[in-house]
Structure formats: C-alpha cells, structure tokens
Amino acid sequence: MAKLSGVQQKIMSFLLEVSLVQGNNSSGPIETAVLSKYIGASYGTTKTSIARLVSKGFLERQKGKTARGGYIDLKIPEEIKEILIEQKQSMVKPY
C-alpha cells in the first residue's frame, strides 16, 4: 500500500469519521476550504493532497459543483474503508 503524507492521513481520517457517522462511503458535499481549515492545512495543499489521494486510489471523486458556492464530494472505496477501520481499531488501546 502506498504511503500517505501527514495531510493525506488527516484527510483520510476526517473522511472516514464522516462516512462512519453518515453510514455510507461518501463525504457528501464539502467545501475544500472547510476541509483545509479542519485539518490545519492551506487550501492549495489540501487540493493537491486530494488529487494525489484520488490518483493513488484511496479516494474517488463524485460529481461536485465548481465555481462560487462549489463543493467536492469524495468517496472512500469499500476495500480502503475496511483497511482504515482495521487500522483505527488496532490503534485503540483497551483499558
């Protein structure tokens, strides 16, 4: 599996949490600017990281909206989501 940068890991972690809360694999409409503020990265870095995650196969871009008021809609492929959930559970330490 390809290595992810810190920003890419933050994006994947955020999108995993969103997908678990929503009960599906899609982020739903989200503005790149909002995502960049949440993960603490610049807008440009966030856009580049998303493009690289898509090219690596970690994310799929769904139909979004460009221009003013635009948004992106990202989907985590099921096999990637399962791996992320396994990794998250292995990091949780029992009391």
Automatic annotation (TrEMBL):
Taxonomic classification: Bacteria, Pseudomonadati, Pseudomonadota, Gammaproteobacteria, Thiotrichales
Protein name stated in the entry: LexA repressor DNA-binding domain-containing protein
Domain of life of the organism encoding this protein: Bacteria
